[in-house]
Amino acid sequence: MATGAGRQLAAQHSHSLEGWYAHIPGIRVLAPATLEDARGMLWTALQEPDPVLIFENVMLYNMSGKLAVDAGAVNIDKAAVRRQGRDITLVTYGGSLWKTLEAATALATEGIEAEVIDLRSLRPLDDATIMASVTKTRRAVIVDEGWRSGSLAAEVGMRIVEQAFWSLDAPVGRVCSEEVPIPYPRHLEYAALPQAPKIVAAAKTALGRT
Predict the structure, then answer these.
(1) Looking at residue 111, what DSSP letter applies?
(2) Residue 53 contacts by C-beta under 8 Å, 6 or more apart in sequence?
(3) Which of 57, 88, 148, 202 could bridge 4 with an S-S bond, Cβ 3.0-4.6 Å?
(4) Which residues pair with 177 in a beta bridge?
């Protein structure tokens, strides 16, 4: 299923509804962010006895690249650490991964090393990978193109509080879409969605560097 915004399709065709489906027990919900995952997740899902929904962010359809010769099935149970860091954990998935990596690069120019976690599987969530990172960095910001209220970001944040509260040195932050129907005009659509500068600002807030 296609998901997400950024193509000026307005409120009718710009929803991020993967969180709705991740609310249903018995359904696996996946969100590839790379070429390898887009292909490999489908391979694995076809062999999975449970129903699997794969949500592809529409902005990823512009990407191109070469697959490794040995590219194959991927483990759909595990999140991926896309960038190592020591100062803060940035948790995201799907199309927001590339904005988050852009933000991590910008933070690095200011001496802040952000670890970037790509969830990949939205149900079930890989708590172990998330908590291992948060325990190391002691701070977390979740980036989610869905709306803030009732979001996957809220679920991930609550799990961090439940499982890693005593490791935290700052409140968990969130960067989500604005609580409005996604606008049609390009400049308003851009403003409504998570972008790298917003992620940078949220990370600095968590680090007390605003």
Answers:
(1) T
(2) 1, 18, 21, 27, 28, 29, 30
(3) 57
(4) 147
